[in-house]
Amino acid sequence: MTPLLEVRGIDKSFGPVKVLHNVELSAYAGEVTALVGDNGAGKSTLVKCIGGIYPIDAGTIFFDGGPVAIHTPRDAGELGIEIVYQDLALCDNLDIVQNMFLGREHKRGLLLDEDTMEELAEKTLSGLSVRTVKSIRQQVSSLSGGQRQTVAIAKAVLWNSKVVILDEPTAALGVAQTAQVLELVRRLADTGLAVVLISHNMNDVFAVSDRIAALYLGRMAAQVKTADVTHAQVVELITAGRSGDLGLKNGVTP
Amino acid sequence: MIKVKELPGEAIVTATQAPSIKNSFRAYVQRVRGGDMGALPAVLGLVVLCVVFAVARPSFVTAGNFANLFTQGAAVTLIAMGLVFVLLLGEIDLSAGFASGVCAAVLAVTLTSMGLPWYVCALAAIVTGVIIGTVLGTLVAKVGIPSFVVTLAAFLAFQGLVLVLVDEGTNISIRDSVIVAIANRNLPPWLGWALYAVCVAVFAVVQLVRARKRAKRGLVADPLSLIAFRVGTLAVLAGAAVFVLNLERSRNPLLVSLTGVPIVVPLILALLVVWTVILRRTAFGRHLYAVGGNTEAARRAGIPVDRLRISAFVICSSMAAIGGIVAASRASSVDPNTGGSSVLLYAVGAAVIGGTSLFGGKGRVLDAVLGGAVVAVIENGMGLMGYGASVKYLVTGSVLLLAAGVDALARKRAAAAGLR
Ligand SMILES: Nc1ncnc2c1ncn2[C@@H]1O[C@H](COP(=O)(O)OP(=O)(O)OP(=O)(O)O)[C@@H](O)[C@H]1O
Ligand SMILES: [Mg+2]
Q1: In degrees rounded to 5, what are phi and psi of residue A217?
Q2: Residue B419 pLDDT greater than 60, yes or no
Q3: Per-residue pLDDT at B341
Q4: What are the domain boundaries of chain B?
Q5: Quick check: B217 and A182 CB within 8 A?
Q6: Nearest to A208 by CA among A236, A234, A232, A180
């Protein structure tokens, strides 16, 4: 099975600091791939490289088997890659519909087609079984953390996206909302999308993921099937970069 | 695999309240309480000021003075309308006042020394505004100099530029009848009423059609009663204004009759409608709000942030140019002070008093018009009371500070209410 999204040999530096070293990652359609790693391991940076926010120094991104060039967020969007960023990236002064369609508004002639956008937003939200918002014309500033997260996810799935990457979508959420978001994540994968989930919570990772990719100090320590590993092994991969014969040899080089 | 289906406490079902005047009003009160006051301070301020001046100086409520208010406030209002675009992005344009002076000088020079027809000259003035805006916007967006510094530098430089254009301080008088008419002539009374009828009718039709369309698609639509209320309010207020402006206001009606809506009024209205449609109903306008609300989010949504920033400055300077043309028309001349002294602060004040935030992301073109009315009433009323420039400056300064304070406090309050 070819991965829907695959990156190979990604290097990324911020000035003198090299944050990603020869990183590879594969995500398969219909599966949840958990991307784990300690704080500062480079997870968000990797995601932003895939999303066209940061240019990569070296390496290739493959989509559906072929190499692609992603220079801007728009390029990623056109391929069908949608990212829910750790810092959400919603505009507080706009309402839910306006945020969901930001940058890709439906138009009739020169004017915005508000009614169609409202209908589609409504449909997407109810498709995700979201019933927690009072009105989809509510300003995002008046939403709770969980509701914002839901809007951000809904925004990502609105576009018939093929790959959805979620950067710590449950970090700020309570127990109930976390469960809800995770269920959503699982459902996305079950509908055939390739989902990449970044999380620090091992229980969450084992609850929803099919594969686990562990990043250690900017290097990909291991990519394994969730069923083949234990909690303890993954924790070791995260904290030491290796576990038994899994992971990086000699501390750093794979 | 986890299984979570129905979560208690989370099933608040899309409880869209039945739309009605009562609910709309309640929602409005809630918004105001939450710190989103919109036009409320400006409207209240306008009412209070008018009552105070009317009591203190009966001459304030004459038809002649009412007409004066429009021509007096027109230039500042036009500049303020442009400033809204820059303020929406959280930027500032301190040079808008003198930019209007430069453009007015271009108009005067092309009219008098070159003797070109009025439309060519007006176009030259506006193109000058476009160029100024492009330069300022590029310096801010591409080079990355804070707009405060760029436009402060331009503020100084443009004063010099005006002096150069008007030959070190001479006064160029404008005699072209069309340009002079803009701020000094009135529509014939019948045309005033005709325009009034068209405006009210179009407003009503647009609202009705929109509500009908939304209702048909099963979306929440404004109820008829609310639309009737809106249209009725507009019809009454605008009708009263047209009626008063159509009264005879000449001191000596037998010699020369002076009636009708000043020509600047439809000019401002047309620009108000055009800019409002662009801001609220086009992707360009939506993106301006997005950049003002969260630049990074806008960038990630693929919005060309730099280009948008430059266009905001272009719009601001072009509106300043139009303001300059109106100012030149009103004075029938251009001198080194055109667009100078308090014009810029009045314009910023007008936008902020009207409810446009200095922090970006919040504002409407209508704010500039409402705020412009407040500023015009203060200036006019204080003049009638016989106060000198000193008191006028002090009062306007205080009002600007008050408006900015209200803006900042509203923001704080919204943050406390979890609304921001
Ligand atoms: N814009 C930037 N400029 C310079 N350094 C950066 C930048 N963004 C990230 N870094 C550095 O890159 C490294 C990886 O950061 P990144 O945000 O990718 O970590 P992460 O794995 O997402 O961590 P967390 O779990 O805390 O979100 C960190 O050392 C960070 O300091
Ligand atoms: Mg991160």
Answers
A1: 50, 45
A2: no
A3: 74
A4: 39-185+262-406
A5: no
A6: A180
Distances (CA, A) of B271 to A104, A153, B193, B268, B338: 27, 39, 19, 5, 22
Alpha helices of chain A — where are they, by DSSP H? 43-50, 73-79, 96-100, 114-127, 145-157, 175-190, 202-208, 231-240
**Would an 8 Å CB–CB cutoff place A190 in contact with chain B?**
no
Q: CB–CB of A220/A213 below 8 Å? A: yes
Looking at CATH, the fold of the domain delimited by A5-94+161-247 is given as: Rossmann fold (3.40.50)
3-state secondary structure of B13: coil
User: For A50-93, how does the pLDDT look when each residue is reduced to its tens digit (9 = 90+)?
Assistant: 999 899 999 999 999 899 999 988 899 889 999 998 777 899 99
Neighbours of B90 (CB within 10 A): 17
For residue B18, the model assigns a pLDDT of 56
Grade residue B418 by pLDDT with cuts at 50, 70 and 90.
low
**pTM of full prediction above 0.90:** no
Ligand 1 binding pocket, CB closer than 6 Å: A 14, 17, 19, 37, 39-45, 86
CA atoms within 13 A on the CB side of B250: 11
Instruction: Mark yes or no for CB contact A208/B361 under 8 Å.
Output: no
Span from the CA of B175 to the centroid of ligand 2 (angstroms): 67
The residue type found at B266 is P
Ligand nearest to the CA of A19: 1
Measured between CA atoms, the residue of chain A closest to residue B14 is A134
Cα B361 to middle of ligand 1, angstroms = 29
Between these two residues, B420 and A194, which has the higher pLDDT value? A194
Interface of A with B in 204-223 (CB under 8 A): 207-208
Residue among A31, A18, A23 at smallest CA distance from A6: A23
Of residues B10 and B77, more confidently modeled? B77
DSSP-assigned beta bridge partners for residue A36? A214
Contacts across the A-B interface (CB distance below 8 Å): 127
**Pairing, β A107-108 against β A211-216:** unpaired
Q: What is the pLDDT of residue B127?
A: 97
pLDDT confidence bin for A132, thresholds 50/70/90: low
Spatial CB neighbours of B178, under 8 Å, sequence gap ≥ 6:
B118, B119
Structure tokens at B107: 């108009």
- Report pLDDT digits (tens) over B183-228: 999 999 999 999 999 999 999 999 999 999 999 988 888 888 889 9
Taking an 8 Å cut-off on Cβ atoms, the answer to whether B282 and A110 are in contact is yes
Q: Give chain B positions within 8 Å (CB) of A90.
A: 294, 297
Task: State the DSSP string of A43-89.
Answer: HHHHHHHHTTSS--SEEEEEETTEEE---SHHHHHHHTEEEE-TT--
CATH of domain B39-185+262-406: 1.10.3470
pLDDT tens-digit map of B295-338: 999 998 889 999 999 999 999 999 999 999 999 999 998 988 88
Give A 121-180 residues with CB within 8 A of chain B: 122, 126, 131-137, 139, 141-142, 176-177, 179-180
pLDDT tens digits for range B109-131: 999 888 889 999 999 999 999 99
Q: Which residues contact B40 (CB under 8 A, 6 or more apart)?
A: B32, B355
CA dist list (Å): B246 to B195, B197, B234, B260, B330? 13, 15, 18, 4, 20
Q: State the DSSP code for A228.
A: G
Kindly tell me if the per-residue pLDDT of B257 is higher than 60. yes
Place of tokens 């308090």: B342
